[in-house]
Design goal:
It is built from two helices and five strands; from the N terminus they run αβαββββ. With about 90 residues, the protein is an alpha+beta fold. The strands form two sheets. The protein has a three-stranded antiparallel sheet, covered by helices on one side. It has a two-stranded antiparallel sheet with strand order 2-3. A hairpin with a 5-residue loop joins strand 4 and strand 5. It is globular, with a radius of gyration of 13 Å. The chain has one domain.
Length: about 90
């Protein structure tokens, strides 16, 4: 999940440099990306709120809760179903 946040930040930076028609396409094969019991921390963005925005802290490792990525925009995650466990969404940046 944090890698997806990194990708969104990267595309925001490209947009700032003048790139146009920017998007992040997310494909997931595991329902735990968009569903599950835990809805705090990084999970709230993908499961509860379905929005990526603000300061998102790294959820694991030595720099857990110290390292973060600031997302300048606010991006909706509109999950579309491909199969029982597969979903995708397209985020325009």
């Amino acid at each position: 999940m944090y890698s997806i946040v990194k990708d969104i930040k990267f595309i925001e930076e490209l947009k700032e440099e003048g790139f146009t028609k920017n998007a992040v396409i997310i494909f997931v094969l595991d329902k735990l990306f968009y569903g599950g019991n835990k809805n705090s921390g990084i999970y709230k963005y993908f499961r509860k709120e379905n929005k990526i925005y603000g300061d998102i802290y790294k959820p694991t490792g030595i720099t857990k809760k110290i390292e973060f990525i600031n997302i300048k925009g606010k991006y909706n995650l509109n999950w579309k179903t491909l199969s029982t466990s597969e979903r995708f969404c397209i985020i325009e940046i």
